[in-house]
């Protein structure tokens, strides 16, 4: 009856009462609850027919129940036993009591259905099936003695096509089950639809419960979460109690699970080891080298400023606006010293001020260069007769440019500190064996806004100096400023991808190197040529 059993139905004439009792050939036939429910109605029907003499007078129905264990060999053995009446399974050999085998009632899968039909068709014994067997509908010439008790399971293809034509739907999509029956449905309907001028635009399958099971999440009786990954494998984020027996017969528990965030598993995977704390310190070689460079460049800048102050009355110092030169030199000195805030253990105050001080100091330096260039252009235009630019000559314009351009950066940094202040943070996950101490910038948007504003000032300064590079003047700095802005922009453009691709102390080292390199570029392009003239070529340091 079920996928594991089938029944042979036989007929006896004028049998005694004892022969009316059923004969069960296999004591283990009730292998499932479903099988039991299927057999009970059959037993009741046979019993009612045999008890009512008016239904089949002088005829008693009997049956044998066989189990095949969903196996072809067991199925053939059962069929030979049905066809044989002696002790041995010998077909066509009749000895003993004659029994008229009427039919075989079974529910089988497609493979075992073929095995039963191949044997029964030889003896022209009817095979009655109440399940859905696709071969019966497609290969009627093979199963001439097979009868299906269920209605036709084929979809009404013609009716579906007529319905589509009724609504004038000529562009359709087909979805079917992800199995053989679904593929057969799509194949037949597509052919019939195409004959009637209907085009199938989309053809797909519905994977039943597979997607749901892959994304299954639930809770067990202990209210712990249960989930699976995209491959259907349970996520191993749970504790396992492993019990092992020792010599004194006692049990020793070993708890297996994830290590805390500040620890990692050793190579043997038998204990958790504390992670080492890393940051860019003054003791290690990288921090020591960067510290030495910052201090050396700061002293160099201070020495150059001393030379300019000592020779402030010389033509080369006067010609290039002494006040702006001093502002630029001091801002470069502070920019070198600012890099020291990035070295050492991140603290609340250093994290809060290091980026803002760096941004403001650099904005002052670039604004000074922009003011120097604008003053050169204004001075050249003021030499023309009747020019309105003469009223702009003076310290007021230069100071206004420096204060306004730097003031915008101060506003950005104050907003950054007030709304998204930086703070010390610990990264436990970037490196498995280390805890990275670093400053969390609070807002990545504000960080790149401040950096982008410096780039904007550098681009404006580069554009103005490039246009003014050919203006006359013995000490015209336009060409030097143009080259210094090229160095500045090149350093900070390369900084962005390098900064994003590193973590921990190396990310800090990248920013320190960018600060030192860009500041050194400004110092070398603006001050070194003038120092050369002041100290080594005083003969050309004249008004002529």
TrEMBL record:
<keyword id="KW-0472">Membrane</keyword>
<keyword id="KW-0812">Transmembrane</keyword>
<dbReference type="Pfam" id="PF00003">
    <property type="entry name" value="7tm_3"/>
</dbReference>
<keyword id="KW-1003">Cell membrane</keyword>
<keyword id="KW-0297">G-protein coupled receptor</keyword>
<dbReference type="GO" id="GO:0004930">
    <property type="term" value="F:G protein-coupled receptor activity"/>
</dbReference>
<keyword id="KW-0807">Transducer</keyword>
<feature type="transmembrane region" description="Helical">
    <location>
        <begin position="356"/>
        <end position="381"/>
    </location>
</feature>
<keyword id="KW-0675">Receptor</keyword>
<dbReference type="GO" id="GO:0005886">
    <property type="term" value="C:plasma membrane"/>
</dbReference>
<dbReference type="InterPro" id="IPR017979">
    <property type="entry name" value="GPCR_3_CS"/>
</dbReference>
<keyword id="KW-1133">Transmembrane helix</keyword>
<feature type="transmembrane region" description="Helical">
    <location>
        <begin position="286"/>
        <end position="309"/>
    </location>
</feature>
<dbReference type="InterPro" id="IPR028082">
    <property type="entry name" value="Peripla_BP_I"/>
</dbReference>
<feature type="transmembrane region" description="Helical">
    <location>
        <begin position="401"/>
        <end position="420"/>
    </location>
</feature>
<feature type="transmembrane region" description="Helical">
    <location>
        <begin position="446"/>
        <end position="468"/>
    </location>
</feature>
<dbReference type="InterPro" id="IPR001828">
    <property type="entry name" value="ANF_lig-bd_rcpt"/>
</dbReference>
<dbReference type="InterPro" id="IPR017978">
    <property type="entry name" value="GPCR_3_C"/>
</dbReference>
<feature type="transmembrane region" description="Helical">
    <location>
        <begin position="480"/>
        <end position="500"/>
    </location>
</feature>
<dbReference type="InterPro" id="IPR000337">
    <property type="entry name" value="GPCR_3"/>
</dbReference>
<dbReference type="InterPro" id="IPR000068">
    <property type="entry name" value="GPCR_3_Ca_sens_rcpt-rel"/>
</dbReference>
<protein>
    <submittedName>
        <fullName>Vomeronasal type-2 receptor 26-like</fullName>
    </submittedName>
</protein>
<feature type="transmembrane region" description="Helical">
    <location>
        <begin position="324"/>
        <end position="344"/>
    </location>
</feature>
<dbReference type="Pfam" id="PF01094">
    <property type="entry name" value="ANF_receptor"/>
</dbReference>
<feature type="domain" description="G-protein coupled receptors family 3 profile">
    <location>
        <begin position="286"/>
        <end position="544"/>
    </location>
</feature>
<keyword id="KW-0325">Glycoprotein</keyword>
<feature type="transmembrane region" description="Helical">
    <location>
        <begin position="506"/>
        <end position="528"/>
    </location>
</feature>
């Amino acid at each position: 009856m079920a996928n594991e059993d089938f029944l042979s139905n036989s007929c006896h004439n004028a049998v005694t009462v004892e022969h009316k009792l059923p004969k069960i050939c296999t004591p283990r036939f009730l292998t499932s609850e479903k099988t039991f429910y299927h057999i009970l109605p059959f037993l009741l029907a046979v019993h009612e027919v045999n008890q009512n003499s008016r239904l089949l007078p002088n005829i008693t129905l009997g049956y044998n129940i066989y189990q095949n264990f969903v196996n072809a060999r067991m199925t053939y053995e059962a069929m030979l036993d049905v066809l044989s009446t002696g002790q041995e399974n010998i077909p066509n050999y009749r000895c003993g009591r004659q029994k008229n085998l009427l039919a075989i009632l079974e529910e089988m899968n497609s493979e075992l259905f073929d095995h039963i039909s191949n044997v029964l068709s030889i003896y022209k014994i009817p095979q009655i099936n109440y399940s859905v067997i696709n071969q019966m509908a497609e290969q009627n010439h093979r199963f001439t003695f097979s009868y299906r008790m269920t209605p036709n399971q084929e979809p009404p293809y013609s009716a579906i096509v007529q319905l589509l034509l009724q609504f004038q739907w000529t562009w359709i999509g087909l979805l079917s089950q992800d199995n053989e029956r679904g593929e057969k449905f799509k194949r037949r309907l597509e052919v019939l639809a195409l004959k009637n001028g209907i085009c199938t635009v989309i053809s797909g399958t519905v994977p039943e419960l597979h997607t749901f099971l892959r994304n299954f999440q639930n809770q067990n009786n202990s209210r712990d979460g249960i989930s699976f990954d995209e491959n259907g494998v349970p996520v191993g984020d749970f504790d396992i109690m492993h019990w092992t027996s020792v010599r004194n017969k006692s049990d020793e528990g070993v708890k297996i699970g994830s290590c805390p965030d500040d620890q990692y598993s050793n190579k043997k995977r038998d204990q958790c080891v504390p992670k080492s704390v890393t940051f860019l310190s003054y003791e290690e070689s990288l921090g020591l080298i960067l510290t030495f460079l910052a201090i050396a460049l700061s002293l160099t800048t201070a020495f150059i400023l001393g030379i300019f102050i000592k020779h402030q009355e010389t033509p080369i110092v006067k010609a290039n606006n002494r006040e702006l030169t001093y502002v630029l030199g001091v801002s470069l000195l502070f920019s070198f010293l600012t890099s020291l805030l990035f070295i050492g253990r991140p603290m609340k105050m250093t994290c809060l001020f290091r980026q803002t001080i760096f941004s403001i100091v650099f904005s002052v330096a670039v604004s000074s260069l922009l003011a120097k260039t604008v003053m050169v252009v204004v001075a050249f235009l003021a030499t023309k007769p009747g020019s309105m630019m003469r009223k702009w000559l003076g310290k007021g314009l230069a100071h206004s440019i420096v204060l306004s351009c730097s003031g915008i950066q101060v506003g950005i940094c104050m907003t950054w500190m007030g709304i998204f202040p930086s703070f010390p943070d610990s990264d436990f996950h970037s490196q498995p064996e280390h805890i990275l101490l670093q400053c969390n910038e609070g807002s990545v948007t504000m960080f790149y806004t401040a950096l982008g504003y410096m780039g904007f000032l550098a681009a404006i300064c580069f554009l103005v100096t490039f246009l003014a590079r050919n203006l006359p003047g013995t000490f015209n700095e336009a060409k030097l400023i143009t080259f210094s802005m090229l160095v500045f922009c090149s350093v900070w453009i390369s900084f962005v991808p390098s900064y994003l691709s590193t973590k921990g102390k190396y990310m800090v080292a990248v920013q320190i190197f960018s600060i030192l390199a860009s500041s050194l570029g400004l110092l070398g392009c603006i001050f070194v040529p003038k120092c050369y003239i002041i100290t080594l070529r005083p003969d050309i340091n004249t008004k002529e």
